[in-house]
């Protein structure tokens, strides 16, 4: 049950609401109690003023030693209220007059519910009041206790203490009513809010449930389907949009993968068909000359090499896509590597009477994966020679600009048609498929440039077709120097 977000949300909501309601009711109760006490104190203070005014007026009409007692009795009669107890004590703590009788026996035992003046709690209050001019305090007794107020006053040169007690019964009843009200209102509010919260959570999560069942139905066969976006400004709309854009990316990569597989099998089919055909022809003819066998084996070897080349390129690209082609960088001189590559390509160039020049630059230290860069340079040189007619020229330059090298390979071939230029780095793309295949000189599956671009980018660099027209093409690779090389340059 707790696995459901709806239930968890409702429980959380109920718990928080319960805490808030409890805290609120406690605070309300406390504030109510405080203001009741304050109101009582103000009332007691005002009552004492009125009492003393009456006492003052009455004492003037009296004479003799009991004048204060007699005046007190009059004042008590005038100010007697149901819930109030008045008492006047002299400085020694002896009672002069009070609105209640104080039976000495009860006073000695010290507790009486009906006679607060005789309780032990009152004695303590009285003791405290002798030390303070004005004193408020709680006195036990009666049903719910009393709020007491004691103040000193002088009459005829003597000091007396006036004590007024107000019963707290009415207030206690009011506070109890408040507490009882809270006690039934809060549980009802919590139950109602929890039920409402559950339905609210259910309603808010309904689109998520719908989305998840819709998403569950999307598979490879219907990858084009998308989740419905009801409101693109709310959180659920954003979630659906994010999910849809994830599906977009997935289906794009799925399509790319399918195209890659289709192109790869198409490219592999041709050399395999040639291999099979050539082998069948060689086997079907009974009497063949040694020369004819050598020729067939030559074709078989050439196609096997081409097949190996394509398979290796495919393997490189799939590993690169999966991020499983870790670079193995080290310090070396780029100009030396270019020189070596130019040297290896010279045989190819000579076969087509193409002049191949490398403009020796100053020493170019670099921190990179040497074998990958070698592969890139050989690819570019191979293309330049392959797509340049006999007697043409191929020139290689390597320059440093700032923190990167620019390595350019320029040929005098026919160039890439302008409309096809943006596509030449795509996998399996060949500007002239028929020609590439017909010439058949070492590969031509349309993977060389995509691998070369990946190599440049894996080194945080880039490979561009800088120029291509009827006079030839220039491919430029920009390669960062890499980690501070330990080798020195010029
Ligand atoms: P391929 O194996 O066909 O050479 P690449 O990926 O190396 O594959 O090249 C893709 C296409 O770009 C080639 O088929 C060719 O049409 C074009 N191309 C590459 N280099 C050159 C160049 N130097 N001159 C003219 N066209 C080129």
Q: In order across it, which strands form the biggest sheet?
A: 2-1-5-4-3
| Total strands | 12
Which structural class matches the secondary elements? alpha+beta
Main beta sheet: strand number and arrangement? 5 strands, antiparallel
How would you describe what is shown here?
The protein is α+β, with helices and mostly antiparallel strands. 55% of the residues lie in helices and 17% in strands. It is built from eleven helices and twelve strands. It has helices at residues 5-61, 67-79, 104-109, 120-130, 169-217, 235-284, 290-321, 334-351, 370-386, 433-439, 448-458, and strands at residues 84-90, 95-98, 134-139, 146-155, 158-167, 330-333, 355-359, 365-368, 393-401, 404-411, 462-469, 472-480. A five-stranded antiparallel sheet has the order 2-1-5-4-3, with helices on both faces. Strand 9 and strand 10 form a beta hairpin. It is rod-shaped, with a radius of gyration of 52 Å. The two termini are 73 Å apart. Mean pLDDT is 87; it is low at 103-113 and 438-442. It binds adenosine-5'-diphosphate.
Could you provide a short overview of the structure?
The chain has 490 residues and is of the alpha+beta class.
Topology:
Layout: H1 5-61, H2 67-79, E1 84-90, E2 95-98, H3 104-109, H4 120-130, E3 134-139, E4 146-155, E5 158-167, H5 169-217, H6 235-284, H7 290-321, E6 330-333, H8 334-351, E7 355-359, E8 365-368, H9 370-386, E9 393-401, E10 404-411, H10 433-439, H11 448-458, E11 462-469, E12 472-480
Parallel strand pairs: 7-9
Antiparallel strand pairs: 1-2, 1-5, 3-4, 4-5, 6-8, 9-10, 10-12, 11-12
Bound molecules: adenosine-5'-diphosphate.
